[in-house]
């Protein structure tokens, strides 16, 4: 009877160990392209509709200048030499947690296809049921689930639902759902 109980306990421990540790051995590489910008989409639409050919050389140059201006972020330098964070949004560095190494950057991209959270040059370890959250705090008390992780390394896009105001969330994070553990995060 003792041997059967020990065998059952070992099977349970082995099953749990497999569930918890096997994802660590799985790396998935993803290389998503940058989402298209509004001006790129507008330019393609105009070109496909024949609108550009009907413009004079001066009108084409003006349109190109406007498109370039629309893609350029104006940086406001304050009197003390600091850059106004409302005007310039640098990519955020991914911060790892104890036992969960990670590296790369995260940025928010407004696109003709919606808003995206983009991980670039990203690398982390895998884990059981990891999801990407937009969260108001690091304990994930208030969050939006962007879905399961799509990869553990590379350039990865996650689409933000249209009804979500991303400015209400301070963090994007990888969260282990069954164990309620933060793997890594970036402040956005």
3D architecture notes:
- The protein is an alpha+beta fold.
- It folds into two domains: 38-71; 89-187, no CATH class.
- Helix content is 24%, strand content 32%.
- It contains three helices and ten strands.
- It has helices at 2-21, 38-48, 57-71, and strands at 29-31, 92-93, 95-96, 102-111, 114-124, 130-135, 143-148, 153-160, 171-176, 181-187.
- The strands form two sheets. A five-stranded mixed sheet has the order 1-8-5-4-2, with no helix packed on it.
- The longest helix has 20 residues, at 2-21.
- It is elongated.
How big is the Rg? 23 Å
Proportion of beta-strand residues = 25-35%
Strand arrangement within the widest β-sheet reads 1-8-5-4-2
- Structural class of the secondary structure composition? alpha+beta
Order of helices and strands: HEHHEEEEEEEEE
Query: What is the domain total for the residues?
Result: 2
- Which residues sit in consecutive blocks of at least 5 with pLDDT less than 50? 67-88
Average of per-residue pLDDT values: 79
Gap between N and C termini, in Å? 57 Å
Report the sheet with the most strands, covering strand number, pairing sense and barrel closure.
Answer: 5 strands, mixed
Q: Helical amount among residues, as a percent range? A: 10-25%
Shape: elongated
Strand count: 10
Question: How many helices?
Answer: 3
Summed up:
Helices cover 24% and strands 32% of the residues.
């Amino acid at each position: 009877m003792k041997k059967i109980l020990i065998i059952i306990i070992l099977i349970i421990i082995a099953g749990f160990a497999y569930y918890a540790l096997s994802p660590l051995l799985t790396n998935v590489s993803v290389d998503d392209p940058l989402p298209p910008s509004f001006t790129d989409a507008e330019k393609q639409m105009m070109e496909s509709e024949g609108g550009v050919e009907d413009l004079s050389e001066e009108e084409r140059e003006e349109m190109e200048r406007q498109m370039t201006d629309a893609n350029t972020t104006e940086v406001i330098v304050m009197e003390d030499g600091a850059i106004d964070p409302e005007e310039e949004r640098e990519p955020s560095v991914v911060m790892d947690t104890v036992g969960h190494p990670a590296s790369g950057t995260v940025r928010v991209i407004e696109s003709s296809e919606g808003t995206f959270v983009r991980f670039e040059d990203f690398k982390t370890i895998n884990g059981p049921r990891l999801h990407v959250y937009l969260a108001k705090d690091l304990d994930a008390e208030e969050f939006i689930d962007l879905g399961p992780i799509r990869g553990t390394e590379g350039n990865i896009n996650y689409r933000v639902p249209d009804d979500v105001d991303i400015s209400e969330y301070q963090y994007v994070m990888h969260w282990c759902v069954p164990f309620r553990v933060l793997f890594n995060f970036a402040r956005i």
